[in-house]
């Protein structure tokens, strides 16, 4: 195995999906059909279709669809 350890069975099952390629969450947008192992991955992907940008920079008000993109952007404001 990969050696990952989990305290909750749910998290182990979710991780195991990556190993077996199970992707139960499917994008319902027309002509898309992308599939994901985890529901939060689907939610993040759906924002690429909807244009919703819930993460906003406090320094310049620029908005992002993903929290990791905001975190990367925030580095430009650090002196």
From TrEMBL:
Entries under Gene3D superfamilies matching the protein: Classic Zinc Finger
Residues annotated as domain C2H2-type: 1-24, 25-54, 55-79
InterPro entries to which the protein is assigned, alphabetical: Znf_C2H2_sf, Znf_C2H2_type
Molecular function as annotated in GO: DNA-binding transcription factor activity, RNA polymerase II-specific; RNA polymerase II cis-regulatory region sequence-specific DNA binding; zinc ion binding
Protein location: Nucleus
Keywords: Metal-binding, Nucleus, Repeat, Zinc, Zinc-finger
Record Pfam families: zf-C2H2
Keyword Ligase set for record: no
Record's keyword annotation contains Nucleus: yes
UniProt name for this protein: KLF15 factor
């Amino acid at each position: 195995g990969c050696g990952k350890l989990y305290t909750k069975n749910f998290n182990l099952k979710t991780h195991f999906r990556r190993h077996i390629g199970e992707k139960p969450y499917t994008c319902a947008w027309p002509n898309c059909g992308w599939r994901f192992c985890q529901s939060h991955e689907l939610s993040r992907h759906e924002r690429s279709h909807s244009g919703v940008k819930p993460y906003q920079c406090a320094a310049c008000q620029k908005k992002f669809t993903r929290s990791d993109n905001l975190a990367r952007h925030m580095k430009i404001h650090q002196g």
